[in-house]
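Tokenised fold entry reproduced for everyone:
>
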Amino acid sequence: MPKVQWGIIGPGDIAANFAQGLAECESGSLLAIASRTPARRESFGDRFGVAPGKRYDSYEALCADPEVGAVHIATPHPFHAEQALMAIRAGKHVSVEKPMALNEAEATAIVEAAREAGVFFREAYMYLHHPQIARMVEILREGRLGAIQHVKAVFGFSAGFDPQSRLYSRELAGGGILDVGGYPVSAARLIAGIGDGVFADPVEVKGVGHLGRTNVDEVAFGLLKFANGITAEISCAVARNLGETVEVFCENGSLRLANPWVPGRNAGPSDSEIHVTTGGQTEIIRLEDERILFAFEAEDASRAILAGETEATFPAMDTRGSIGNARVQDAWRRELGYVTFAEDPATVRRLVNVLPSGLPQVSTVKLEGVEKPVNRLIMGCDNRDTAAEGAVVWDAWMEAGGRTFDTAFVYGGGRHEAVLGDWIRSRGVSDDVTVIVKGVHSPYCFPDVISAQLDISLDRLGLEKAPIYIMHRDNPDVPVGEFVEAVARERDAGRIGIWGGSNWSVERFAEAVAYANERGLEPPRVLNNNLSLAVMVKPVWDGCATSNSPGTLGWMRENGIIHISWSSQARGYFLPRELRDRLPVDTNPETCFGGPENEERRRRAETLAQDLGVTPHNVATAWVLHQGFPSLALIGPRSPGEIATTLPALDVKLSTEQVAWLNLED
């Protein structure tokens, strides 16, 4: 029988458990280990029969071994993400101990990388592979207990305080939520989603707890509410004996796992009990197995790899479940005020290998009046709430040659400017990037607001000047000259480079140009409206304007206006159907761009994409870049994977005839 040949990175206690599990499974075996500590490397190798030539002193060397088919990562928490990405990019199947990453953004990047590489990936929640979990699911589904109402899941122990230990060290991402909090979170989500066979995502997360002397959570309590009405109490601790239980309260009774997390952790047997109570009577269901707990997860992962599968299946932790778990743990930590070292604004950590190789670099154009070249694709920064979330995307953007960013005074109530500024400072790239700054959004769209908002924006961003400044809205009740004069004062002060307007009509824009030219002032040269191959039929937000009309396109071509389009990809209108409905119904692509003419544009993009070997999404993005005037496209990727699927548009070359044909101008 073929076996998966495993390598283990980080030969500690949990790695020893997994190695013993491999020794007791039929489909996998341990081939190699990697540790930077010689004594640990030799001791672990001797214990588990690893050949001397397969005991590596570097993780890279293990991942480069062609005989290693899969890698299990068991290092301390902060290293999981970077090592998982390293193994994935080396083409290895990957199993990584929980937490797979320190936040949702990192978890998403890892999952995307595994999908891009076509390898198996799993976050190793070993308890989910134990037979008692499958039996619990069967009992809850068979209906005798009635509808599930509430879950209580607890994993709390008391470890002696040691500021240097991984449990208490902030530098090692210690604390209960990241160490064992994922267990009760995943159990509650599994049980809440049993009806649909998924790990359900809560609609509310509340929490309290205690941050100790090292500023990690020593004990944490949480409340979850799910869309189906199920509620959950979750708790965890590294400094308090809370116990280890899972209880499910149902309409007609209850179910309890007496030892949910670690039956047979260090050695078999891994016997367990499920207590089912109905009508005042309790039935005890005993499950017996001679194997160590970790044999089940080692067997399941190895079999899945041999079968060509790329993730675990419910009730084991699939990739969607892992991302959701990270999201809940992020929210739980925010409730307590626990910020990991990786999220400190001044020291946000950098992940490498988040983008696959072979992608085109982001090309640039030179705009008169802007010191540095400007990317043809521009990174929109209106969806990252923390610098840690932003760093995963923005570092990848820089890796791809991206240097141009777009933000605004109003985004996230100011938060998004601030987190972009935190990232710029942490990377020391203020002299390397070009930031488009937008201000005076309705209802504060008045000339005398420009200076005050610009003060705040530049302070948040840590910049002295906005090389491109855009008025976020127009106010037709104000004479256009007043806006031109207000911008001129900021230009004289050296705080604004070139400028323009977002969601301005052509008429008002032309009026502003004429006013400035008559008085020897700098005219607006940048129009920042929606421009996408799909024509906006319902404004995404009140006051939005589209530039995809024959009159506007012709006017910009005649006057050489710089256009920077927002929602250049029509909110995903050209993506596969299953990806189009991720946004709220009132602003999703079909609501804002749906209609027979746009359906024909999409059909034509699909036809051309097939001929060019790219996606319709790439063709639609390339259309924006191939206008008869300087046309740049704002994009708003929320993950490195979304960057990776967009960049191929830069290699798409469209003729004038193809541009017209796609837009139904033929």
Q: What stands out?
A: The first strand starts at residue 4 and ends at 9. The mean pLDDT is 96. The first helix runs from residue 13 to 23.
